[in-house]
Structures are given as structure tokens and as C-alpha cells.
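RECORD TYPE: inverse folding
INPUT: C-alpha cells
STRUCTURE:
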């Protein structure tokens, strides 16, 4: 049964202006330049130049129009816009920000891909029609690193169901051997061990170091991967120098052969352009936004005069109504955009000044140990902004200082108390960890337990699992994998 009833709800929705402000706040300097240029192209009511340079025009606000029109038979701009003809710009209220939408990139011509190169090499081999089909399907299953991650039994089933091709694992193995003979060396391997062996097989194995390297990978790969070098020396009856020479040969191999052929232009590298410039002198700090390529914006005087002229025209034609709606929409959109850009600049400076004040000792000379523990909440309390707003400012923004260019996220870190009760930044602890590991004896690297003891001796009360977490954040492997001969 259908029922009709009235219900009141209190909902919180973002206005189009708020969504526009949020999006502009997130983007860095390089993208904001592109965003302004795009807005200038799409909105003819927006012009480059300061407001001081604009020719003087009469005020074009609705209130002024109404006041002028009342002097002329009480005619108002609202006469053009009836209640049932609401402008489109007032109906646009998209409350879902497409933050994850990627900017469309300009297409460019490129050479053949990794898989196309393999297929062209395969076409030069003497294969029958069925083997060519099998070979092309196997190449299609090779990933970007050059590995065949799927079992041959699964490929047999795929060929039977998808392409109606009956084959066996033995036939696939035979074609796979042909593919593994292609360039780059190691392509089509199913494991890292097989990849390294394929590359060594294409070298001169009569050389003692290469022959020993092949033997180690073939028969002692588990010990080699876990760096149990003592077991390898004992079982093969070799010296440490011979083992070191063999390991050097293995380290020259490529564990990801597909990466050699990947198009270097497949990923567009974005240059780092600082959003803030901080200059230090005897008088103190001078912080300003990097707005060298950002044009000043103003309303188009031509469009303002056009709207003023339309407002005084007493004709009531539909074409005139449409013209008024269009002009007013463009002017309002331009006003919103100019206000959003100004608000973005004010918010960025407000947040960065708070960070500068909080980390003042660090910015004097860039000493990492002077960094204080700071989280988003600290800056939010200083500025009166919301934590999400501070997070958007800190994301993808950079500052240029007299000692380098740094992302704003670099200045945020958690805190830890020392024996004396002093609160220090976790970045200081990571710096000590890095120094300890850089200066350790590589034959006997420091374990996490030993690193914990060193930090505790320096007055940092920290648990071993925390040391392991910081070590992983520094992309430093465990002691066993750092061992060298």
C-alpha cells in the first residue's frame, strides 16, 4: 500500500562555492595555474589583470540595479526572471566532490610496448599456427615485470574455454621455452630463481665467478636469499672472496626484466614547484606564496556594462531573458572563482605561518633534531581551521627554504618522551636509527634488539616493536638482509 506523508529533515549540504573552494585548496601551484587558465577560457566574464586596471563602471550588483530601476517606473531585473524560471546556476548543487578523478592527459605518440616487442620477436621464430596462438596467449599473461605469474594448468583451461584451443602443459612448456629465449633475458620466468638462472645461462659460464653464481642460484638459492653465507661457504668449500665475486655477478642481474623495456614516458613526471617561498635574514623570516605565474583576476567590464544595459531594457522578450540569465550566471561564476582564489591564498598563508611559528627553531638552520612533535590538530587549534582543511593544505604542497625544498607533510610527526620528560619528535629518533645503521659493521649488522638498547642508552624509552616500525618506515630491511661479506 502506498502512503503519502510529509517529513522534515535537517540536512547539511555543501554549496557549489564550498565545493569549489575545497577543490582549489587541495591542488598545488602547478595545477592551480592550469585551473585558472581553464576558467579564463570557459568564462568570458573573467579577465586577467588587477581590479585597479579595470575601467570604472557603474556598480552592477542586484541591489544597485533595483535602486536604479525604481527611479525608472519601478522596473527591476526580477521582471525578466519569473519565479518558475530559476537560473541554472542556482540549481547546480553537486555535493559529491570527484577528488579521485584524474586529469585528462594529452596523448602522445610512443614506440611499441613491452608485449608488442615480445610478439614481434616471437613472429621471427619458426612456429606452426597453433604454437603462435599459444605463444601470443602466454605473452598476454606476462606482467609488466616480465614474469609469468599464472600456472600452465590454468592457461590450458583458459585456452579451452575462451579460445576453443585444446592443448597440454607439455606443449605450453615447449612454447614457453621459446619465449624465455627472447629479449630481455629472464622474460617469461615464473620465479625469481628461474629469472636469475635464465639471465646467467646467456652469459659465459666458463668464467669461474659466473659458474659459481649459477651453482649458488641453482642449488643454494634459499640460503642465498636468506643471506646464510656461512652455510654456502661450508657446503661448496669456497673462500669468502670467491663467494663475494659470485654475489657481485648476481647483483648485476635484473630481477625485473620487463622494467628494462617499459616506456620511460608511460608515467609523466611532474616537476616540483614550491607553493611557498621562505626567505631568512637577520630581521627574521619572510614567507610568501609562489605566485609568479598566477595572473590577477577581475570581472570583465564589458560583461558588467552588458548586464547593466539589459537591466534597463524594458522589453519582455524571451531572448532578452535568456541573455540576462546567461550574463548574470557568468558574472556570478567569475565572482565565486575570484573569491575562492583569494580565500585559498589566505588559508594557505594562515596555515603555513602557523607551521612556521610552531617549528621556528627548525627553520633557522634546518637541523632535523630541532623539529618538534606536531600533528594536524596542533595547527588546527592555532589557526581556528578544521583538521580536514589543514590536511588539504598539507597535502601535495611544498615550501622552498634556504636549506632545501620540503613537502609540508615533512614537518608533521608524532612525539615521544625522553627520560628527562622532554618531548621529542619521532623524526629525531629515525635520524639516530639511520645514523646507527649507516655506521654499523656490515658483516654483523645491528639487530632491532641492539638498536633498542642504543636508543635507551641515549635516553629514549622505546620498545623493540616501535624500533621495527620506524626501521620499516625508513625502508631499511632487517639485520639478516643487511649483512654483507
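DESIGNED SEQUENCE:
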Amino acid at each position: 500500500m502506498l502512503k503519502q506523508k510529509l517529513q522534515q529533515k535537517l540536512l547539511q549540504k555543501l554549496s557549489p562555492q564550498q565545493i569549489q573552494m575545497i577543490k582549489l585548496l587541495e591542488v598545488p601551484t602547478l595545477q592551480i595555474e592550469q585551473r585558472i587558465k581553464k576558467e579564463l577560457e570557459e568564462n568570458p566574464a573573467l579577465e586577467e589583470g588587477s581590479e585597479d586596471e579595470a575601467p570604472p563602471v557603474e556598480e552592477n550588483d542586484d541591489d544597485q540595479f533595483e535602486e536604479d530601476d525604481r527611479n525608472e517606473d519601478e522596473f527591476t531585473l526580477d521582471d525578466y526572471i519569473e519565479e518558475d524560471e530559476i537560473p541554472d546556476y542556482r540549481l547546480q548543487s553537486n555535493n559529491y566532490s570527484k577528488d579521485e578523478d584524474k586529469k585528462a592527459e594529452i596523448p602522445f605518440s610512443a614506440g611499441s610496448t613491452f608485449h608488442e616487442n615480445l610478439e614481434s620477436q616471437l613472429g621471427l621464430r619458426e612456429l606452426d599456427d597453433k604454437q603462435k596462438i599459444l605463444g601470443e596467449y602466454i605473452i598476454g599473461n606476462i606482467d609488466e615485470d616480465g614474469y609469468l605469474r599464472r600456472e600452465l594448468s590454468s592457461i590450458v583451461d583458459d585456452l579451452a574455454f575462451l579460445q576453443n584451443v585444446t592443448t597440454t602443459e607439455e606443449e605450453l612448456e615447449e612454447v614457453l621455452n621459446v619465449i624465455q629465449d627472447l629479449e630481455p633475458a629472464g622474460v617469461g620466468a615464473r620465479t625469481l630463481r628461474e629469472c636469475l638462472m635464465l639471465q646467467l645461462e646467456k652469459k659465459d659460464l666458463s668464467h669461474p665467478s659466473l659458474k659459481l653464481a649459477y651453482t649458488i642460484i641453482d642449488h643454494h638459492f634459499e640460503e642465498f636469499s636468506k643471506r646464510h653465507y656461512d652455510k654456502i661457504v661450508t657446503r661448496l668449500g669456497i673462500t669468502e672472496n670467491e663467494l663475494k665475486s659470485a654475489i657481485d655477478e648476481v647483483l648485476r642481474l635484473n630481477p625485473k626484466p620487463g622494467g628494462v623495456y617499459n616506456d620511460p614516458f608511460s608515467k609523466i613526471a611532474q616537476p616540483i614547484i614550491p607553493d611557498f617561498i621562505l626567505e631568512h635574514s637577520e630581521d627574521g623570516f619572510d614567507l610568501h606564496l609562489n605566485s609568479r605565474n598566477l595572473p590577477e583576476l577581475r570581472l570583465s567590464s564589458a560583461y558588467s556594462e552588458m548586464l547593466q544595459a539589459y537591466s534597463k531594457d524594458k522589453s519582455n522578450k524571451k531572448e532578452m531573458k535568456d541573455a540576462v540569465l546567461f550574463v548574470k550566471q557568468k558574472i556570478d561564476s567569475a565572482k565565486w572563482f575570484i573569491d575562492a582564489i583569494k580565500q585559498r591564498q589566505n588559508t594557505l598563508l594562515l596555515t603555513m605561518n602557523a607551521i612556521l611559528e610552531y617549528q621556528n627553531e627548525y627553520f633557522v638552520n634546518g637541523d632535523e633534531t630541532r623539529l618538534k612533535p606536531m600533528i594536524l590538530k596542533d595547527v588546527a587549534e592555532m589557526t581556528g581551521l578544521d583538521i580536514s582543511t589543514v590536511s588539504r593544505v598539507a597535502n601535495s604542497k611544498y615550501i622552498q627554504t634556504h636549506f632545501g625544498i620540503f613537502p609540508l607533510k615533512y614537518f608533521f610527526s608524532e612525539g615521544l618522551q625522553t627520560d628527562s620528560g622532554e618531548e621529542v619528535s619521532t623524526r629525531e629518533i629515525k635520524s639516530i636509527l639511520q645514523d646507527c645503521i649507516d655506521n654499523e659493521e656490515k658483516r654483523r649488522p645491528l639487530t632491532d634488539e641492539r638498536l633498542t638498547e642504543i636508543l635507551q642508552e641515549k635516553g629514549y624509552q622505546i620498545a623493540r616493536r616501535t624500533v621495527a616500525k620506524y626501521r620499516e618506515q625508513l625502508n631499511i630491511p632487517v639485520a639478516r638482509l643487511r649483512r654483507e661479506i
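NOTES: The chain has four domains: 25-80+293-339, 114-179, 199-259, 341-482.
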